[in-house]
Amino acid sequence: MAAGATDELSLVFHALADPTRRAILSRLSSGEATAGELAEPFAISRPAVSQHLSVLESAGLIDRNARAQWRTCTIRTEPLDEVSAWIDEHRALWTERFELLDERLRDLKQKQQEQDNPQND
Amino acid sequence: MAAGATDELSLVFHALADPTRRAILSRLSSGEATAGELAEPFAISRPAVSQHLSVLESAGLIDRNARAQWRTCTIRTEPLDEVSAWIDEHRALWTERFELLDERLRDLKQKQQEQDNPQND
DNA sequence: CGGCCATGTAAGCAACTCCTTAATTAATGA
DNA sequence: TCATTAATTAAGGAGTTGCTTACATGGCCG
């Protein structure tokens, strides 16, 4: 019972939690590429890249079309939308809370100032 | 040389790649809480929660203020902003590419139709 | 001060991650 | 058909993760 969370959101977050995989996605942003082209700039072996691609594929972040002996990769945006939605939802809540907190802090500060200098009234 | 990526973005994504940690953050969205309060609904031990909180703290996602013997946790939004920025940037690029691809596909389809029915000119 | 709290740290274990090299699959072209 | 090219799968190792059960820390109240 260890690090294996299998729900979709966890898979996507996990896939994005690796600099190599993010770099691969960045590379794919500017156009589809073969596994070999992706492996070249990263100073890791071809199989390592293959495994990274499998992780990205499991997370639904890329498609691998086996055309001839060249497997070209393309990107899918849907999982990112889900991630974005999660983040936006929670950030909205938190920001709301922070504004409330800010207000409360301002109130406190004001009250404290009034206490510190009661003659200033 | 294994699973340890130490850059900030990786830390945040990794921290979010666990359902328990996301649930903790959700719980904290509705107000600060102590470690004990957070541990209760999750059916895991207190130390386990403590470790999850450490991960979230390392990623900069929460603050732990040691007030008395109750350590209350509060949320920070800055890391989420970074994550959002990364996602938005890349999704924008991909969407752009998809629109280009769509166009190309429409062009191809049209040309093919013209080839299939040359007399329709 | 000494016994309770709530919490964090340490040690240990099974499962997983990411990398490697070696063997395998699959399509191309002489 | 057989060597070549491109990529994945298999096997194995160093290091992490996430959980557990003890143990240690530090503030509270009798």
UniProtKB/TrEMBL annotation, chains A, B:
Residues 1-95 form the HTH arsR-type domain. CDD domains: HTH_ARSR (cd00090). GO terms for molecular function: DNA-binding transcription factor activity. It comes from the Bacteria. InterPro entries: ArsR-like_HTH (IPR011991), HTH_ArsR_DNA-bd_dom (IPR001845), WH-like_DNA-bd_sf (IPR036388), WH_DNA-bd_sf (IPR036390). Pfam families: HTH_20. NCBIfam families: HTH_metalloreg (NF033788). This is Transcriptional regulator. It comes from Orlajensenia leifsoniae.
